[in-house]
Each structure stands twice: as C-alpha cells, then as structure tokens.
TrEMBL record:
Gene3D superfamilies: Acyl-CoA dehydrogenase/oxidase, N-terminal domain, Butyryl-CoA Dehydrogenase, subunit A, domain 2, Butyryl-CoA Dehydrogenase, subunit A, domain 3. Residues 6-119 form the Acyl-CoA dehydrogenase/oxidase N-terminal domain. It comes from Streptomyces glomeratus. InterPro entries: Acyl-CoA_Oxase/DH_mid-dom_sf, AcylCo_DH-like_C, AcylCo_DH/oxidase_C, AcylCoA_DH/ox_N, AcylCoA_DH/ox_N_sf, AcylCoA_DH/oxidase_NM_dom_sf. Pfam families: Acyl-CoA_dh_1, Acyl-CoA_dh_N. Belongs to the acyl-CoA dehydrogenase family. Keywords: FAD, Flavoprotein, Oxidoreductase. Residues 251-375 form the Acyl-CoA dehydrogenase/oxidase C-terminal domain. This is Acyl-CoA dehydrogenase family protein. SUPFAM superfamilies: Acyl-CoA dehydrogenase C-terminal domain-like, Acyl-CoA dehydrogenase NM domain-like.
Length: 391
C-alpha cells in the first residue's frame, strides 16, 4: 500500500478547503441551517457545478469524474471540518451508489447525470430508526427492519401493473428537500417477506423534524398510496447492496468525522495560546498540554484508520464500520475537550464548540453508537467465538 496521496487527490483537498474557508464560516453555517432546505443552495451550486463533488465517485459515462471512494472521502473530510450543511452525504454517499449498483441501464442513464451535476438531490428513506441496521453497520440487515409484513414500517403492493407504497419513514437525511427518494419497503407478504428499493419522484407528505445536529437536516416521510418505480429488478440482492454501500459510507463518514475533530482541536489549541490566567497563557500549563496531546494522538490514529478504510473499499475489504467507530469516538473526545478548555464561552450557544459535539452525538444516533459499531465488527470477524481445541 502506497500511503502517499496523488497530486490530484491533494488538489481536491486543497481546492475544497479554500472554497469552504471563504464561503462556509460559523455564521454561514448558522444561517444555512435556518433556511427551509437546511443548506445554502449557492454553496451547493459551487460544490456541485464548479468542484463536481457529487460526481467524484461516479463513472464518466454518467457525467462523473471516475474517481474512487478515497477522493470522495477526502472531499468530505474538508466539509466535515466546517460542518458544511449540504445534500452531499445523502445524495452522493448513500443514494448514488445504490442507483449505480442496482438500477437498470435506463434508470442509471436517467438519474445519475443529474446527480453528478448537482441538479438532482436524493435521499435514502428507511423506516423508523433502522438506517444503521439497513446499512449493516450495527447488525445483520436481512431481517424485517423494513416492515416485516405487519403494521408499521413501509409496505409495497403491486396493483394494475404499478407499485404503490404505504407507510412512514422517520429520520430521513435531507428527505424534505430531496428531488428523489429511494425508499426501502417490505413486499411479498408475511410468508414471503423481502425488502426492495423503490424510486419516488413525487407525492407523499414530507415534514422536516427537529434534529440534535441542525447541520444534518432530517425529515419524516409519509406515503399513502403513492406510485413508485422499482429500482432494478425484483431479484436483486438489496441487503447485499445496502451492506456494500454502508461500508463505503462508513469510510466516508469516518473521514468527515476526522475533519471535524481536527478542526475542533485546531480551534482549541489556538484559544489556549491566547487565553491567559494567573498571568500566563493557559496553554502553557502541563495539564492542558497533556490533554491536547492525547487528543492529537487520537486524531492522527483515527485519520489513519479512516484513510485505510477508504482505500480498502476498492479492494473489497470491509473495515468502514470499525474506522467510523474510532473516528466518532475521537470526535466526541475532541469536541468535549473543546467545550471544557474554552471555559465559560465554550458552553454558550454563540460559540461553535457545541456544534461539533452535536455532530458527534447526532452521527452516533443515525449510524450507530461507538460500542455497537465495534461489537458488530467483532461479531463479523468472529473475534470472540470459542474455538474447539483438539485434545
């Protein structure tokens, strides 16, 4: 493995950081999350049309750049540094790979060019709070999380040659503003239970919910007899595709969390250098130095794990969940230290420290807590299985 980045990868990182430094400061983030969409359309236009971020990991045949998950992860590391609210995660990380993996040729040709250009945004709608399960991050995703054939969840029925959807999905990332919904629904009846994915272009009731992390807008989707289009064919391996997308998404999320943790550490170091107490900068106290040194070591370790996870996706290795666990734990620690070491100002609504702490907590609610991510990784690797010893 060559751990060095290419010139193109370094340029992607530098360009995205420069743009966000000018257009996505703390006040810009606060203003964007208060809009109806939850993000700044002008900034999204720059990220999509000028920088081409939604199409980084899409094939050139569909208007993308033909890059890998690594390039997309590096771009998301920079968006994570400033907590930039945008539909990049929901569109390019969670939804576009499913369209590419499962869609028919006609569906790919129809939808992916719009996603690559940023004209079309998309969201993955999973019933209840089962996103982490659906993506196979905290448990097996071949169960009945989409509805189970009984009341609740999302149901799909076929009548007169068309699919109709019924049910409700909560905590849908960017679901209130997405131009396309990819909905996971149960079909086949209780005896022949299975989960399929459907495309919903219009219809239903979308309500934006109050979220712990305002930079991750969430919505509740209610569908009542809404016409839908089956994604791909009814024989596709939906759980397998979701698991593959989940691992890649975890690697990207890990890089995003590392960017946020690095920024939280950076602002804290800058603050303790200028904040004085007892006639000297508090950053000169040994206890403060040790605390920040520990955070620095954790950030570097999490960054290495995140980069490896992004690189490993091209080799078929699935270590994204473990890297995400380490990155989220690091972000929670870095944000917690930022709040503490900023003193009284760190606890105020006006300071940005709490936004990073909420990002860590909010991502754990959406994609799985640190201990559950690690437990599932250990179960998958059969780490704690008892082995018979020959006598």
């Amino acid at each position: 493995m060559d751990a060095r980045f290419t010139a193109e990868q370094d340029e992607i990182r530098r360009t995205v950081r420069d743009v966000l430094a000018r257009r996505c400061g703390p006040q810009d983030v606060r203003a964007a999350v208060d809009t109806d969409t939850g993000y700044d359309p002008a900034l999204w236009d720059v990220l999509a049309r000028r920088l081409g971020l939604p199409g980084l990991a899409l094939p050139e045949a569909y208007g993308g750049s033909g890059c890998t998950t690594t390039e997309l992860a590096l771009a998301c590391e920079e968006t994570g540094r400033c907590l930039a609210p945008s539909p990049l995660l929901s569109t390019a990380v969670l939804t576009a790979p499913l369209l590419l993996a499962l869609g028919t040729d006609a569906q790919r040709a129809d939808l992916l060019p719009g996603i690559a250009s940023g004209e079309l945004t998309a969201a993955l709608a999973v019933p209840g709070t089962a996103l982490a399960t659906a993506l196979c991050l905290t448990g097996d995703n071949r169960g009945a999380w989409a509805g189970g054939g009984r009341a609740g969840g999302m149901q799909a029925r076929r009548a007169d040659g068309a699919w109709r959807l019924y049910g409700e999905a909560g905590q849908v990332l960017d679901g209130h503003s997405a131009g396309l919904l990819v909905v996971a629904a149960h079909t086949g009846g209780f005896a022949r239970s299975r989960t399929l994915l459907f495309l919903v272009r219009e219809g239903g009731v979308r309500t934006r919910e109050t979220a712990l992390d305002a930079t991750r807008p969430l919505a509740r989707i209610q569908l009542r007899d809404v016409e839908a289009e089956l994604l791909g064919e009814d024989r596709t391996d939906v759980p397998g595709a979701l698991a593959a997308v989940g691992d890649r998404a975890a690697a990207v999320l890990a890089c995003e969390a590392v960017g946020a943790a690095d920024r939280a550490l950076e602002t804290t170091v800058a603050y303790v250098k200028r904040r004085e107490q007892f006639g000297r900068a508090i950053g000169s106290f040994q206890a403060v130095k040790h605390r920040l040194a520990d955070v620095y070591v954790r950030v570097q370790a999490a960054r290495s794990a995140a980069y490896y996870a992004a690189w490993a996706t091209a080799r078929g290795e699935r270590v994204g969940g473990l890297a995400l666990a380490q990155a989220l734990g690091t972000l929670r620690t870095a944000a917690g230290e930022a709040v503490q070491l900023h003193g009284g100002i760190g606890f105020t609504w006006e300071h940005e420290a709490h936004l990073y702490f909420k990002r860590a907590a909010g991502d754990e609610l959406l994609f799985g807590s640190v201990h559950r991510l690690r437990a599932h990784a250990a179960d998958t690797a059969r780490l704690f299985e008892e082995k018979e010893v020959a006598v």
